[in-house]
Amino acid sequence: MFKNYLKTAWRNITGNRMVSFINLFGMTVGLTCCLLIACFVVNELSYDQFRQADNIYRVTRSFYTEKGVEYLHLASIAPAAGPLLKNDFPAVEKETRTLPLTGDIVFKYRNKIFNEQGTFFADSNFFDFFSVPVLEGNAKASLAEPFSMMVTPEIAHKYFGSEDPVNKIVQVNGQFPVKITGIFRDFPANSTFHPDILLSFSTLNDSSIYGRQKLETSWDNNAFFTYLMLPSGYPAQQLEKQFPAFLNRHAHFQGESPDYIPSKYSSLYLQKLRDIHLYSHLADEIEPNGSITAVYIFSVIALFILLIACMNYMNLATAKSLLRTKEIGVRKTLGAQRKELVFQLLSESVILAYAALIIALLLTSLLLPYLNRLADRSMSIRILAQWKIIIPVLLLPLATGFLSGIYPAFFLSSFNPVKALKGMAKYGSKTIPIRKVLVVIQFTLSIILIIATVVVFSQMRFVLHSSLGFNKDHIVTMQYNNALDNKLEAFQSELLHDRDIRSLALSSRIPSGRLLDATGIDIAAGNSIAPVNITCKYVVINSGFIPTYQIQMAEGRNFDPTQFPTDSNNLIINEAAVRLFGWKNAAEGLGKNYTYNGRKGKVIGVVKNFHFESMFQEITPVMFSLGSLKDHVFNNISIKISGDRLQSSIDDIRKTWDQFVPEVPFTYTFLDERFAKLYTAEQRQEKVFTIFACLAILIACLGLFGLSAFTISQRTKEIGIRKVLGANVRNIIILLSQDFMLLVGVASLIALPVGWIFMHRWLGVFAYHISIHWWMLLPAVVIAIIVAVVTIGVLAVRAARANPVEALRIE
Amino acid sequence: MQNNMIKISNLEKIYRTEEVETIALNKMNMEVKEGEFVAVMGPSGCGKSTLLNILGLLDDPNGGSFLFNGEEIAHYNERQRANLRKRTIGFVFQSFNLIDELTVFENVELPLIYTGVKASERKERVEAALDKMQIMHRRNHYPQQLSGGQQQRVAVARAVVNQPKLILADEPTGNLDSSNGNEVMALLTDLNDAGTTIVMVTHSEHDAKYAHRIIRMLDGQTVTESILREQL
To answer: Which helix (H) or strand (E) element contains residue A60?
Structure first.
């Protein structure tokens, strides 16, 4: 019996090529989307699978203003906290700290000098937590001694070629030598961070590098990523509850006021290591994490596509059923029961779905490299080769086939055999609305996706091209190196000789980065007579900063240390800070006094608000103070160039750099590229939405094409009669298209509000976003209508032009 | 005298649409004995096709009684009817009603599949039926590749392959020329001689003469019955 079903199914599939192609194409695209997204989802869920990953927690710290408002949440904490946590809480089995070194670190071995970015200080028990294989050396001992370091095979090869790297001495940043004590295998791609070089944590004890005392007592350098190992199944919240008391015990600093309560200004939290990749987006993540929202959005869209394909099958199968009424009638006459017919008809859709799966698997492996590029991942199709994935993947076509086939199967098998044999089993009055409903749903989904694409596109144009309040174009940024300390003036004047180089700025942070430094200052805020302590973000700059970035002054003046030597004690603030301090306007702020760390000065200038951070962040209050080289507060150099001869300007800067600091390799970025990078995830979503929207509309149109082909063939005789009676081509085209146009219209009416609501929520993550105007929604509808008109039009024109005599001869 | 295979009494079938009510069978009475060959004649719309559909358990009556081998089946549900149908009744249609997607062999095989006959036995029985209808050489062809006469022979083979006790034929020669028509009538006569009961609806006086008895219908009722040949 089953063989007979297969045979009929196969002949039905091969018999009607157009319909089968549309169905197979739709299902293949739908399943391919699902498989690709499955790879993505499985990969996203697979992060940080170290041996005891489920028992590892990261300690994070948030900070509050006087009013109890959280203004910063860091993924890292102070160095003293880790050992104290282990000491105070017996539940903490182990504790490890790692300090990622930001920016480029220069390593030198003989004549080989390279900038390295993945350098971390790591405790000696690092590999107890992050269980990557240690290829040479000892996982427990190699990071114990000060001034030792471990590297990945790739780094080893880069510096030592085929030589054995162990026991070789390497110079770090021109400051100190370290000995290589081991090699560890690269962290897997699906890890939240990827160290290339691990320096032993005990190196930090050296006072020339950091100092033991600071390591043991500091509560204000919150740069240390600290992980705890808890017993299996230990309730982390229970530990978290004891953190306020812990902070009150330990987190004190010299010179604090007598009523200072640490837990009022700061909290510690625990994060499961396995949750970090998808759920954590704190201010200083080591690498950008994924997002569970993206996982949901992409999964839902892939299912949308599959659903649209399933609906094609339903529509076409019921439409095609007209050609199969005789078969159904005969089978019923010969004794087929309804359930046998349902089974037979279902087997057709299921077979088709399995055929689609085979093609989809092939396509997935072909397309995965593109997805990897799009999503910045390195997945392989092998990621699906695990039973808990294979089984659902194998069941997916069954579900797809079932979903597609169940309605047509019940519809066809319900034919009365007598009527079926007489060819009278036309659609009952109920079936037309169902098919119409399906077309409406397909177009609704397609239009929503087009709306999403248009809105994401507009928002990306907005964040990338709207004014930031300063000029981000033609600014080259480089990391400041202390080797420049004594030569800076010469370096600067040499550069400014070049007429394409306009100005140069030094600063602790540059726009496009996060504002992570904050301090409390005593300031005469608002109407208060006595100064109050207010916490505010700050950036240390030199006098070149404001002109280089072309930041607008609202009141007052820029720093000018040559004319006003006291400027090193003065402040420039932004308009947001004016509001924070409770002054009516910028002018009122000028000349206000403040005290910080025993330093007294006044506000000499107010700059207009500008976007230092990304558009996700509100513009926050910022103070700018004038720094000096001897304090080692500058981390960045920004150079404004004319932009007329970009490449030659870069070459000139490189030449000068190499001339002054040959021991440090020259690296640079363009500021506008740094800003663009802030929106990588959203730009990725833009591409995904575009691709998916195109696929959705394509599949929906194929379905519409098939459906109208059937409708039109059914109406051939009617068209013939109308033409004989005098209808012209235009009348016929309108006659044939108007029904479908109405459906697309209904779909638009549903999709517009739904799409608006979804995209409004999507925009919500941006502090600054476009508002959705009606004219942004219009393209979606216009595209849907044009595509539908073209689809139906091709068939309608053909039908309308046909010789009516031919049409009438049919019955 | 044989037992009644079919006995219908006061059988009613009414088709209703929103505006019109059409009485297709109006308290019809009729008996068919086992082994009989009955022809049903009458003008278009007299209800003979309706009668055949009800006899073939493809349609159910609105009222009256339908005894099949002595059992009342007017109230059977679709499943029961399908079960009884596939075991005891074979159909021959005017328009053959072969499935275009299946070969000759597969078309004939279909009733056996639905009654759950094993594959090896199916092959034997299909080949026997095709042999008997002299269409064996066409077993791997599709219906469109055959002439009308050949298609009807396949349809007859399909009707008999399950060895039904009753064959219902709806104008079996209506789409055939006279020589092919005669051949099909000869086949039916042979089947009847071998013991199969046959009820045939026809417009053709010529074909009706092959039957033992002609029932003439008008407006959903029997008007005359004539006995043509005496039962053996």
So the answer is: strand A56-64
pLDDT at residue number A692:
84
Instruction: Please report where in the chains the tokens 């082994």 appear, as a residue.
Output: B35
Classify strands A119-122 and A197-200 as parallel, antiparallel or unpaired.
parallel
pLDDT for res A807 = 61
Cβ separation B97–A329 shorter than 8 A: yes
Q: Which of A1, A337, A418 minimises the CB distance to B58? A: A418
| 3-state SS record for A323-348 | HHHHHHHHHHHCCCCHHHHHHHHHHH
Residue A724 is predicted with a pLDDT of 67
pLDDT at B230 over 60: no
Nearest residue on chain A to B168, judged by CA atoms? A333
Query: Is the distance from CB of B59 to CB of B4 less than 8 angstroms?
Result: no
For residue A170, list its beta bridge partners. A178
Find which of A333, A348, A416, A422 to mutate to test the B interface (most B CBs within 10 Å of its CB).
Answer: A333
Q: Is the pLDDT of residue A525 over 90?
A: no
Residue A783 to residue A779: CA distance in whole angstroms? 6
Please tell me whether the interface predicted TM-score (ipTM) of this complex is above 0.85: no
Which residues in chain B have Cβ-Cβ distances shorter than 8 Å to A332?
58, 82
- The pLDDT tens digits for A281-301 are 888 899 888 889 888 888 888
The letter for the amino acid at B20 is V
Non-local (6+) Cβ contacts of B57 within 8 A are: B73, B76, B81, B82, B84, B85, B89
- Range A157-164 average pLDDT: 92
Query: Which residue type does A599 have?
Result: R
CB A42 within 8 A of CB A389: yes
Test mutation, B18, B81, B88, B101, chain A, max A CBs within 10 A: B101
B-chain CB neighbours of A421 within 8 Å are 93, 95, 97
pLDDT at A156 over 50: yes
CB-nearest to B85 from A335, A338, A418 is A335
Spatial separation of the C-alpha atoms in residues A519 and A571, rounded to whole Å:
13
Q: Between residues A431 and A116, which one has the greater pLDDT?
A: A116
Q: How far is CA B232 from the centre of its chain?
A: 22
Write out pLDDT tens, residues A706-730. 888 877 877 777 777 777 666 777 7
Q: Are A201 and A145 in contact (CB under 8 A)?
A: no
Contacts of B60 in chain A (CB under 8 A): none
CB-CB contact of A760 with A772 (8 Å): yes
The count of residues in chain A is 811
Give the contacts of B139 (CB within 8 A, at least 6 positions apart). Answer: B103, B104, B105, B127, B130
Distance between CA atoms of residues A600 and A617, nearest Å: 31
**Mean pLDDT, residues A628-647 taken together:** 88
CA B152 to chain centroid, in Å, comes to 13
Which residues face A539 on adjacent strands? A624
Q: How far apart are CA A340 and CA A150, in angstroms?
A: 68
Tell me the mean pLDDT in the region A118-146: 94
User: What's the rounded Cα separation, in Å, for the pair B176 and B154?
Assistant: 14
A518 vs A220: CA distance, rounded Å = 11
Cα(B8)–Cα(A400) distance, rounded to whole angstroms? 48
- pLDDT at residue B2 tops 70: no
Rounded CA gap, A40 and A443, in Å? 27
Instruction: Supply the pTM of this predicted model.
Output: 0.77
Distance CA A450, CA A690 (A): 7
Q: Which amino acid is at A129?
A: F
Considering only residues A426 and B158, tell me which one the structure prediction assigns the higher pLDDT. B158
**Residues of B whose CB is below 8 A from A336:** 82, 86, 114
Whether the CB-CB separation of B102 and A8 falls below 8 Å is answered with: yes
Which carries the bigger pLDDT value, residue A713 or residue A37? A37
For chain B, how are helix, strand and coil distributed in percent, rounded to 5? 35, 30, 35
